[in-house]
Every structure is written in C-alpha cells, then in structure tokens.
Amino acid sequence: MSNRPELLAPPEIFYDDSEARKYTSSSRIIDIQARLSERALELLALSVDGIPRLLLDIGCGSGLSGETLTENGHQWIGLDVSQSMLNIALEREVEGDLLLGDMGQDASFVPLWPSGWDKGLALRPGIIDGAISISAVQWLCNADKSSHEPRLRLKAFFGSLYRCLARGARAVFQVYPENIAQRELILRSAMHAGFAGGVVIDYPHSAKSRKEYLVLACGAPSISTAVPRGKGEDGESCSEDESSEENQTTLYALPVPAAAHQLDDADDDAHINERK
C-alpha cells in the first residue's frame, strides 16, 4: 500500500487533530519545512529593496512555512483545508492571516464575491505579490469525492491564482508528482490559466535530495529570466550534461533559476512528513 498521504485520505481527514499535532511537534519536519520554504522564497526572486511583500502560502498547515516568510520580513495569508492544522497555527500565534478553504473548489471563506470569484482561491485581483506552496498542490490530482474531477479542480485553482497575483509576480510550488503524467497535468493546467514557467529540479541525480519546484510567472515577467547553472552537491556548478538533463523537464517559456540546495535527511518517500 502506498505511503503517499494524498492516496490514504483527503487532507482534511488525514490531518486530524492527532496527525496535525504530531506533525507540528517534529523537529525534523520543522527543519525540512524551513529549508524547503527558504528555497521556494529564493525562487520567487523578489526584489531586494527592503519592502515587505504580501505573499500567499497555499496549504499553509500549522504555519511552519509562514514563519519563514515572517522571518524574511514579509506579510502573508495562509490557506488550508484542514481545520485541525489551522487550529494549531492559531495556538502558535503565527503572524499570517489564516483562511479555511479548499484551493480547488468553491471558496467558502469569502462571504461575497463578484461573478467569477466563486472558484479556487477567491481573493481580490492583483493583490498578491507572490505565492508559495510546500507539498500541497499534488493533492488536487486525486478525486477524493465523487464530485471531484482533477482537471476541473486544477483549472479552478490556477485560474483563481492567476487572477489574484500581481502582474509579473511568481508562484513557486514544491511538489511531489506521483508520475510524469501527473506532473504534466499540473503544468498544462498552469499554462492554460495563462502562466509561463516550468520545473526546477534540485539534485536530479540524488535519490535522497531530489526536489521538484514548479516556478510560474503571471503575465509578462518583470524580473530577469536568465538561467544560472545549477549547483551540485559539492557546491559547484553542475556539468553541461547535468544542466541539460535537468532542463528536459522545463517544458514552457519562462526560464527559471535552477540552483540546487541539498537536503541531507529528506528522501523522496519522506514527503508523507513534509506538509506544513
């Protein structure tokens, strides 16, 4: 039986009070979450001007990733479907604003919205300066209810995300696609919503350290799109062969940074513990 949490139960059921508290109390998970969030923030490529940005943490859980955003001087809004996770975030007095809702369905956390805002994130157009998500977006690829259609849920999510992001803003999602078909489904859904972007793979040749990040730009990018050479496990640039293999998964228009940061204690199967 698979140990992927998204195949065991819907997130609002899997992350009940017991699982949410166990997750948040693990020092190992806290460390992994911090490093994944730092990497996602790096890939957002925000201007270094000292101005706090309003960021969105999708699948924020108990606020572990949000703490990284706070430590870097940013304001944030966190969205999660697990009431238990959000209750712990409130207990921990995180500094972000928290919303209970399903990123892929009708939004229940906004009382009134104009026509067309009733799907996905339901935030006002253009107010978000960047978005991150750690180990959450792949949940949209599962049909946990008879009414769930993954393609429609991904369409609702990416369409609403595109609307709420400022033009030129980026979204960075650390994901665990189950297979190539699932990765391509997520990418196609993002591109159909209007995003440019692709996949950055940190340490593509390491079974233990490999991590995938979907890096998207909303509208015409306002930042440099030059692609630096990725770093290897020794801290040096990857070889031409490594770089070209990594770029085979960058399927769409926007070049994205591909520097790699090693996570010594995180292997691919450990993602059962790597939600916020």
Describe what you observe in this structure.
By secondary structure, the chain is an alpha/beta fold. The protein is 30% helix and 18% strand. The chain has a single domain (5-273), classed as Vaccinia Virus protein VP39 (Rossmann fold, 3-Layer(aba) Sandwich), CATH 3.40.50. The chain has eight helices and seven strands. The protein has a seven-stranded mixed beta sheet, sandwiched between helices. Pfam families: Methyltransf_25.
What order do the helices and strands come in, and which of them pair?
Blueprint: H1 11-14, H2 17-24, H3 27-44, E1 54-58, H4 64-71, E2 75-80, H5 83-91, E3 97-100, E4 128-134, H6 150-164, E5 165-175, H7 180-192, E6 195-202, E7 211-218, H8 240-247
Parallel strand pairs: 1-2, 1-4, 2-3, 4-5
Antiparallel strand pairs: 5-7, 6-7
Q: What is the number of helices? A: 8
Structural class: alpha/beta
Distance between the termini: 23 Å
The profile of the biggest β sheet is: 7 strands, mixed
Rg for CA atoms = 17 Å
Tally of structural domains: 1
The strands making up the biggest β-sheet line up spatially as: 3-2-1-4-5-7-6
The name of the CATH architecture is: 3-Layer(aba) Sandwich
How many β-strands, per DSSP? 7
CATH H level, superfamily name: Vaccinia Virus protein VP39
What is the N-to-C succession of helices and strands?
A: HHHEHEHEEHEHEEH
Q: Report the portion of residues in β strands.
A: 15-25%
Instruction: Give helix % range.
Output: 25-40%
Name the CATH class.
Alpha Beta
Shape: globular
Mean pLDDT: 75
pLDDT < 50 runs, ≥5 residues = 106-118, 222-231, 233-237, 242-273
Q: What is the CATH fold-level name?
A: Rossmann fold
GO molecular function, one term: rRNA (guanine) methyltransferase activity
Subcellular location: Cytoplasm; Nucleus
Family: Belongs to the class I-like SAM-binding methyltransferase superfamily. BUD23/WBSCR22 family.
Organism: Populus deltoides
